[in-house]
Amino acid sequence: MITPGGSVTGDRQKLMSDYLEALVRRDDISRYFASDVVWRTMETGEEVVGAAAVADYIRILHTVLFDAEPRVRSLVVTGDFACLEADFVGRHIGELAGIPPTGVEVNIAYCVTYGLSDAGISWLRAYLPLAQLVGQLQAGTRAATA
């Protein structure tokens, strides 16, 4: 992914910018990942391994469970590391944690850290407040039935 003769920081900044743009456009993001990339959800310890599997996991979150997008607050890229702070904003459209689709609008602040290499994004650590997300769904469901 890093171009010969290019600056590592500049090329990695472009990698992350291009990745985030593709994510928002709902393009295939697997090309931005190293083949053995690892996603880890820090709250649960769940891991997903491999470029296609990680891309699919992220796609399902944004287009099957929710109709959602990340709204970037900040992105820092330095050397082999990047950190994204964003809001996950969207509507609940698929079953999550035993909760059927509610149509509830969600807005959750989250953070993802990334390991970067010449092969692309090599790992992601997602600091997603899943309990808060489920709480928003439950509160929205209660409000709709009240």
Protein architecture, described:
The chain is an alpha+beta fold and 146 residues long. The protein has a single domain, classed as Nuclear Transport Factor 2, Chain: A. Helix content is 34%, strand content 40%. It contains three helices and six strands. The chain has helices at residues 8-25, 51-65, 130-145; strands spanning 33-41, 47-49, 66-78, 81-92, 105-117, 120-127. The protein has a six-stranded mixed sheet. The protein is elongated.
Secondary-structure topology with pairs:
Layout: H1 8-25, E1 33-41, E2 47-49, H2 51-65, E3 66-78, E4 81-92, E5 105-117, E6 120-127, H3 130-145
Parallel strand pairs: 1-6
Antiparallel strand pairs: 1-2, 3-4, 4-5, 5-6
What string gives the helices and strands in order?
HEEHEEEEH
**First and last CA, distance:** 52 Å
| Binned strand content | 35-45%
Mean pLDDT: 91
Supply the number of structural domains. Answer: 1
How is the CATH topology named?
Answer: Nuclear Transport Factor 2, Chain: A
User: How is the biggest beta sheet arranged?
Assistant: 6 strands, mixed
Question: What are the segments in which pLDDT stays under 50 over at least 5 consecutive residues?
Answer: 1-8
| Main sheet: strand order | 2-1-6-5-4-3
CATH class label:
Alpha Beta
Summing up helix and strand content along with how strands pair, one would put the structural category as alpha+beta
Work out the radius of gyration: 16 Å
Q: Indicate the overall shape.
A: elongated
User: Helicity, in percent?
Assistant: 25-40%
Number of helices: 3
